[in-house]
Amino acid sequence: MRTTDEQAVGESWIRDHVQSLERGLAVICCLGTSKEMTLTQVAEATAITRAAARRFLLTLERLGYVGRTDRGYRLLPRTLELGYAYLSSQELPQIAQPYLQQLASELDESCGVSVLDQDAILYIARVTVSRLVGANLRAGSTLPAYCTAAGRILLAALGPSELANYLKRAKLEPRAPHTITDPKVLAGEIEVARTQGWYLIDQEIEHGIRSVAMPIRDTSGKTIAAVNVSSYSTRVSLTQLHRKFLPRIRQTVEKIEAELHSHR
């Protein structure tokens, strides 16, 4: 049974909620999953009627966020303003980027800084080397939290009730040979990440891909982001990840934290 405070919060949310804004953002998000989509596909993906989907698409088209194609609709470059507005307002991406450049150069591997965004990790800074690992990932890209090294680091920072709710709702789909899909086993691995302060994923997000991550903490010790480096299993052994990659990631984290804390 809900408490009086919970009821008050729920009633306030209903009163202040703007459904049309929610649906408009849902249309933008769904178009971001494909190069182009038909009106019917947009309506089905957002669970709204074709008539409503058409109105939202026409409005977004007039505002310059959506364009028409021969087969349907696609996002236009102006939508980048929405993401860049967030990135430009945050200190961490700007602080982290040069240190990621140095880390990628030293290890010759792709790396990034990500934060937890609902049930996914969201890259806020990224450096990709000229190899196929994460070649399509950049600032603004997302990946599932449950099967990524950075994701387990960030999930480890959640409180007990938050983590329990996540484990109940998360869809743990097998994406690669070693993907953990049992909530109890996943909870155990998240605890490992919490205890040791770093985490290594071996072919869970994609076949042949390994990744190791560490948390970035604020002045209070709270985890606010994670740094990760990814590589092919055929290029880098688990021993190399431990002995070579982990110390370099730790140094990078220390540099980022030192500069971040100096701005407070």
UniProtKB/TrEMBL annotation:
Keywords: DNA-binding, Transcription, Transcription regulation. SUPFAM superfamilies: GAF domain-like, Winged helix' DNA-binding domain. InterPro entries: GAF-like_dom_sf, HTH_MetabolicPath_Reg, PcaR_PcaU, Tscrpt_reg_IclR_C, Tscrpt_reg_IclR_N, WH-like_DNA-bd_sf, WH_DNA-bd_sf. Residues 78-262 form the IclR-ED domain. GO terms for biological process: 3,4-dihydroxybenzoate metabolic process; negative regulation of DNA-templated transcription; positive regulation of DNA-templated transcription. GO terms for molecular function: DNA binding; DNA-binding transcription factor activity. This is IclR family transcriptional regulator. It comes from Candidimonas nitroreducens.
